[in-house]
User: Fold these one by one.
Assistant:
Number 1:
Amino acid sequence: MPSRLNPYISFDGDARQAMEFYRGVFGGTLTVNTYRDFGEKEAGDAADKIMHSMLETDSGFTLMAADTPPGMEHKPGNNISVSVSGDDSGELRGYWDKLSADGTVSVPIEKQMWGDVFGMCTDRFGITWMVNISEQQA
């Protein structure tokens, strides 16, 4: 298997809902394992929280996530965004519509000075997404 780079997102108890939402956005196969599934006897109230999840899509995207482990502090920040790009306008606008619904749009999806169509939003789970649609070369 070749090396790959993919985002791994930490959530504060809503990883399952977020990953099911992303499966609705991107499609694909979602694998979810709880702390209980991995035999974490010390998990207590977190037994049904997500220890590891992975969404793999037909487009080749891989997104991983988990709930913050028991005893660790959840510290969301603004130092990372997830970017989706390509030249299939219909597909990418479909992702945009779903990701930005019930979220906050910081940059409306529209033609930008570099020639591509671009938008940035924060979804309802607090994750920042950038969608860039490359203009097809004539």
Number 2:
Amino acid sequence: MRSFPILLFTLSFFHSEGQSVDKEKQLDVLIVTDDRKFNREAFFAMFDSFDNIQWCEISQSEVLNLFGSDSIKYYDALVFYDMPENVVLSEEQKENMLRFFEEGASAVFLHHSLLSYREWDKFSDIIGGRYYNKTPLITPDGDTIQSAFQHDVHYKVHIADKEHPVTRGMDDFKILDETYKNYVVNSDVEVLLTTDHPSSGTVIGWVNTYGNSQIVYLINGHSESAYDNPDYRQLLHNAINWVGSGKK
């Protein structure tokens, strides 16, 4: 498996080897990653299995520059699989990112992207929640919220909204994945997925509205046990299609 560089100025795109796509139905997707180690072959094989998607990979540091350019408008959807916890954004970078989402972005955030930009409170308004990794949240009542995770948990994903295009036609399914607990989910998100496993928070997938954007967040996706799960693949494919095709 190989990934492809993004050409910011020529706006050229590439497709993965062996993939045949009907161009009238194809979506051009930009996948944002960072230095976190993960099974790249298994992860990108998941996207290769989506027959109407062509993808490029870009680093988290590079995409910050893209937010302020017209080049990003070329892509039908962005998928964020990065986790820039300690990155300090400049005021210009913050303004560019906020403008991008306010104007109407097509974006899916996965798993550890909930930990991103923990020094910037506004990011939780974009993604719809927050994981408090190293620095806990002290509530106005003096309570402490410290998020936690657990590897390799077998649990059931419950489809909370069976009418939404992201989940329509899907049934509850089981998955082996990392769980998160004690994270914050904004009260105004549209809940798509839940679980009752004790090592996890209840809400594990949602749609968040920010400006003119409707953003999908899916908590699953830590490793190949999730990438290879056919139900998770269907869920992710649905989410990309929904945000990337005018949310029809």
Number 3:
Amino acid sequence: MDSQNSVYQPIDCNYYDRLEAWATLREPVLLEFLGSDGQPQTETAVIRDLYVRNKAEFLLTEAGRELRLDRLMAVNHLPVPKTC
């Protein structure tokens, strides 16, 4: 099964707070995440919004990329913790 369609695994609550802070600052961040092919990818982007859809949390960049938060590996080289 494609992990993009797998059961959502919530990210660490404190890390979510960091994402909200980066979104508020509107400064570019380095996103490290698993692409739809399961391969690591990086992208510099401004976080526009964080939201929930179908019981999964998402990040939306200013460029329009939508990223499910459990696909994130790190932001600005700060790894996403595995537990909340």
Number 4:
Amino acid sequence: MSQTEGARLFRESWIAGVRRHFPGEPKAGYVTPWDDTPQWERDAAGAVYTQIRQFVEVSGGRTSRLSREQKSRFVATCWTAQMFKHFEDPKPGYVADWADLPSWQRETDADIFDAVEEALG
């Protein structure tokens, strides 16, 4: 899977997770379709997809043994690094520690890891 395809998988998994876990009606920006997603966000999604893919590969495919929390923390940390890359002074919510993220976002991040892992299967 190319990085662009992986970025799209990341975004589609994010949207599906938000729809599954977000309490109530999510902000429009949370569920913006791929074609309307800003370039910086596409680039960030592609970078995090690549990091997840590489992590699965260097782990010999054993990442299925990680807990949902471990998977979610990995995605959140990778995303935070991208926020610092793309924004000089990112909003605090963009770079919040995993423990400070809302539960819907932590669950969505775990879903993203699972989707990438499954696609590599």
